[in-house]
Amino acid sequence: MSERPVFPKDFLWGASTSAYQIEGGAEADGRAPSIWDSFCKLKGRVDNGESGDVACDHYHRMPEDVELMAALGLRAYRFSVSWPRVLPRGRGAPNEKGLDFYDRLIDRLLEKNIEPWLCLYHWDLPQALQDMGGWTVRDGAGWFADYAALCARRYGDRVKRWATFNEFSVFTLFGWAFGWGAPSIADRASHLKAIHHVNLAHGAGVDTLRALVPGASIGAVHSVQPMRPETDRPEDVEAAALFDEHWNRAFPDAQLLAHYPRRIAEAIEPYVQPGDMARIARPLDWFGLNHYAPVYGRRDDSLIWGFGFGSPPAGMKRTAIDWPYDPGCFRDTLIDLTRRYRLPIYVTENGYGTKAAEAPDAEGRVADPERLAYLQAYIAAMAEAKARGADVRGYFVWSLLDNFEWGGGYGTRFGIVHVDFKTQARTPKDSARWYADLIRGG
Ligand code: IFM
């Protein structure tokens, strides 16, 4: 596929990152630990015992990184604020130096005509709040609203695009049900409470932003990866149906249709108080879609809900990290979401991960033909979806930089810009050059 798909002039092209994955500066200027700092200290939980302590050192190299974005011609940049950097105890006294970092980032982006898209929560809950019960307590919604108010008052004069959370279902499932991510809990009641309280926090955050940021355009970022049963055995089909509710429906249905999907609704009832669904389902301006691949679900009794990850069909094309490669699924997802939730969609993440080193060659070129082909195919699929009625308005590649890939440490690279983690040198890969050309011509 070499022909370039055509998008309207105002289609928004950007890149996404998140605080814990790129900033480093874990103890700089008064930042306190998040649940991910704590998780990384647990033995054997992150590949090679790595952590986000230094990551891409973006906290100290931010001006250089904004120059890089400008050189690529990005029109928008989605980043997240580190809650424990601006509110080390999670609530109470703010950290002026931490707040100042995002002031400087936002000002530089605006100087370069790059629209800042601010996401309040990309998984790094302050450890101090986790120590008080974190998302398993209803107070979490109020803590989040206060944090949103701090950011809204500080940045709302310059930032108009706000997202409450990134991938609600992924961080609650991995952190509170599978136990494979921070805070490493695997308990049904804790998971259900976390789902409901995060939904309440989202609703409270939306109200806060709406009240404090004139002209705010507010959304939430969902991971939607259509669920397919590994086999047609009834136990796999039923397990995949419950997995689907958890991964793809528990948050967007609650927030946009004001109800939980059927199976979850029953289980979560003890934690839902009268009026809660109205508190959660606040009007939104856009739907943030993070999409990578369909997921194959199967019965797995070793996990608390009895569902787990199955294998894609033998022979199915996969990426270098074994994720299914299915641009048609991306196209169909965009069309289905437009019909289901009736909001403009921004693709807030999509990209290609590999475990290959992808180091610069003697001429300083980083060849990443597989990522480039993936982006071409997925962007072409997005054009097709748009032609078939999907209301998609923008695309943010994941990710600007190679970064800390959670449990995978630094071994998995998603960046269109290569990072040498020894020297912190940045080198745009071939995919970045291609993306820059696309933006210029788009
Ligand atoms: O790196 C993550 C990101 O933090 C959330 N979405 C998926 C990406 C790739 O795994």
UniProtKB/TrEMBL annotation:
Question: GO biological process: what's one of them?
Answer: cellulose catabolic process
Q: Which residues bind substrate?
A: 21, 122, 166, 292, 398, 405-406
Question: Which residues are catalytic?
Answer: 167 (proton donor), 349 (nucleophile)
Q: Name one Pfam family in it.
A: Glyco_hydro_1
**Single GO MF descriptor:** beta-glucosidase activity
| EC number from the UniProt entry | 3.2.1.21
This protein's superkingdom? Bacteria
Name the keywords, alphabetized: Carbohydrate metabolism, Cellulose degradation, Glycosidase, Hydrolase, Plasmid, Polysaccharide degradation
Query: What InterPro entries does the entry give?
Result: GH (IPR017853), GH_1_N_CS (IPR033132), Glyco_hydro_1 (IPR001360), Glyco_hydro_1_beta-glucosidase (IPR017736)
Its UniProt entry gives the catalysed reaction(s) as: Hydrolysis of terminal, non-reducing beta-D-glucosyl residues with release of beta-D-glucose
CC terms in the record's Gene Ontology section: cytosol
Q: Which family does it belong to?
A: Belongs to the glycosyl hydrolase 1 family.
Instruction: List the protein's name.
Output: Beta-glucosidase
Q: Which source organism does the UniProt entry give?
A: Azospirillum ramasamyi
Q: What is the lineage of its organism?
A: Bacteria, Pseudomonadati, Pseudomonadota, Alphaproteobacteria, Rhodospirillales
